Amino acid sequence: MVKAVGLLIDTAGIDKLRITGGEPLLSPKFDAVLPEVMQMGLSDVSVTTNGQLLPRKAPLIIDAGLRRINISLDTLDARAFRDIARSGDLATVLKGIDLMLEAGIKVKLNMVPMRGKNDHQILPMLDYALARGIELRFIELMNMGHLQGNALFERQFYGMDEILELIAEHYEFTRAQAPLDSTAARFEISGRGMFGIIANESEPFCRTCSRLRLSSNGKLYGCLSNAKSYDLRDTLNLPEPLAIAKLQSILGNALADKQLASFRGEVTVMKFIGG
């Protein structure tokens, strides 16, 4: 994994890395990979986690020097949490958040609003985040995996306009600038903080997406909306000049898989390809 990341740095010029999943803290590779990638000169390294193992892994994360972490949390209601997450408990996640904040690590929360399941938690989640200096990201439900071609997607989808309309009833906010290749529209509540919306359906960002995804079994994906992948494992056994030359060819194909306009959906499930 570390060698593959090094090759991508040398070949693609990447300078940001997110360790995601699935749940990365479950992986036996995590404890070895995180400290090594933190020493690779990247401008930004972050981890996305559901937070269930965060209290246990906090010393490793803090000692490695991680400065930013994204935590997936869809509700502050303990009963609803069990229904949505299907395992774990809310108290553990909240404890992990507190440990990260106490260590000076910047926390972002990821929430997927779903009509009829947790849309009533949009404002409580925002209040919780603003009170702690956390940026909350609302992520529109994605038309992929088990939701691909499923009427459940249409029933549960809760879009950007609805989110903003609800928040506007309680807060005044203005749209903030974001980097060209950002996936999130960001908004500022003056004197309180920021929140964002990853509006893959309402405001697609495919035209400016610059992300690559490396799976835990060595497959490179150019796009969340395309199940096509490229195996890097043989490349890792080549001498570096040959490996870079082969990877350049692979990168050209992977980048060509990106959608031209908007997210079209895919049967790929998020636990295999990451966010």
UniProtKB/TrEMBL annotation:
Q: Which GO terms describe its biological process?
A: Mo-molybdopterin cofactor biosynthetic process
Q: Which CDD domains match?
A: Radical_SAM (cd01335)
Q: Which GO terms describe its molecular function?
A: 4 iron, 4 sulfur cluster binding; cyclic pyranopterin monophosphate synthase activity; GTP 3',8'-cyclase activity; GTP binding; metal ion binding
- Pathway participation: Cofactor biosynthesis; molybdopterin biosynthesis
Q: Does the keyword tRNA processing apply?
A: no
Keyword S-adenosyl-L-methionine, does the record have it?
yes
Q: Please state every residue range assigned to the domain named Radical SAM core.
A: 1-186
* Record InterPro entries: Aldolase_TIM, MoaA_twitch, MoCo_biosynth_MoaA/MoaC, rSAM, rSAM_sf
UniProt keywords, alphabetically? GTP-binding, Iron, Iron-sulfur, Metal-binding, Molybdenum cofactor biosynthesis, Nucleotide-binding, S-adenosyl-L-methionine
Q: What is this protein called?
A: MoaA protein
Q: Which organism is it from?
A: Symbiodinium necroappetens
Q: What is the lineage of its organism?
A: Eukaryota, Sar, Alveolata, Dinophyceae, Suessiales
